From TrEMBL:
One of its GO terms (molecular function) is DNA binding. Keywords: DNA-binding, Transcription, Transcription regulation. Residues 1-93 form the HTH hxlR-type domain. This is Transcriptional regulator, putative.
């Protein structure tokens, strides 16, 4: 699971967007240059399958979908933050 999520170059970007309360796919694509809807949807789908994100679909026209970090996702992101800090320490040496 970790290899799949970290191996996707957009997963960490998606997590950063969610931390900024950008939780709708269209909004995510508009905020990140080079991110396509197709790639974003694949990334979001994998994160939902692993239980890191929750998908909420609203019964509206036009359809509205939002993604939110789950409790498990928060724990997972804590690990990613620790890895990022470790990487920064290594680079500082």
């Amino acid at each position: 699971m970790v290899e799949t999520i970290v191996g996707c170059k957009w997963s960490l970007t998606v997590f950063q967007l969610l931390a900024q309360d950008i939780n709708r796919p269209g909004e995510m694509v508009r905020h990140v240059e080079g991110l396509t809807t197709k790639v974003l949807n694949q990334c979001l789908k994998r994160n939902v399958e692993f239980g890191i994100l929750a998908k909420i679909s609203y019964p509206e026209i036009p359809p509205r979908v939002e993604y939110h970090v789950t409790t498990f996702g928060n724990k997972f992101m804590t690990i990613l933050d620790a890895l990022k800090e470790l990487q920064q320490e290594i680079e500082a040496q």
